[in-house]
Amino acid sequence: AQALLHLVNYGGNSREEVQAHIQGHFSRATLLRPGQPDLSLKTARRGPSTEVFVPTLGRLAIVRFSN
After folding, report:
1. Fewer Cβ atoms within 10 Å of its own Cβ: the N or the C terminal residue of the chain?
2. pLDDT tens digits, residue range 9-58?
């Protein structure tokens, strides 16, 4: 199973981590950002969802969740 989480930042660049939750249990998450290498994120189960922390958020990012 896979899922994509699209993140759009309408403000300025964030220097703080952004916490994100998605429904379902996933063991892997990869952060995809334009012009930057892919980055593996640590996943944590939180009840019926999976949680990740995105280290920095520019204008656009996608988190790809998979098992």
Report:
1. N
2. 888 776 789 999 999 999 999 999 999 999 999 999 999 999 999 998 88
The 10 Å Cβ neighbour count of residue 63 is 24
Place of tokens 């379902």: 24
For residues 2 and 66, the answer to whether their CB atoms sit within 8 Å is yes
pTM: 0.90
| Contact (Cβ atoms closer than 8 angstroms) between residue 9 and residue 58 | yes
Alpha-carbon gap, residue 33 to 51, rounded angstroms: 19
Q: CA-based diameter of the chain, in Å? A: 34
Residue written as tokens 């249990």?
Answer: 25
Q: In what order do the strands lie in the sheet with 18-23?
A: 18-23, 49-54, 44-46
43 bridge partner residues = none
